[in-house]
Amino acid sequence: MEYTKERLKKTICKYAFCRTVELDMKFPPITENKDWYIKLWDAIWEELDDIDDDFVPVLTELNEKGYYTDGCCSGHLEEIEKYGTWNIYLSFCYIYGFKDIPLKAGKNKAMFCAEYNGSKKASIEEKNKARLDKLDELLEWAKKLPFCEESKLDYRIEDGWVMFQNRKIYDVSDLKQV
Fold this sequence. Notes:
single chain; alpha+beta; four-stranded antiparallel β-sheet; three-stranded antiparallel β-sheet; about 40% helix
């Protein structure tokens, strides 16, 4: 199956929507405040358009297996052209205890990074190849991960409802779902 932003959005959008609804449970049921939920859904969907294209395969693999992320940067070719180097980072919503991720652990135990450490005299093409190779290595690592055994999510969208634990919270059946 091909890695596309639409496929990725299906994993992240439902997570982000449910997470926001859970955090904002002070809002009335959707039948009383439908416009707020439609705006929320649309805002989340639009925000996902900004995700780095080069990171889409990695994020798709991780999210489909239940490892949710909250930030990433693929080190962009433009960064190499401007600064002569690149930095990749990947931040998770939870601490999963990864032992073999091909990135260095950051100060925050849920964040990992990599930076270009090759020859400063290398061409932009060589530096970009090293960046893409690191992303490929990260994708291969993600493909080998098992499905997350312990779900960190107590909420989900099921049969048109946002569910928190086993309780129906909001009816979203008529929202523009992916």
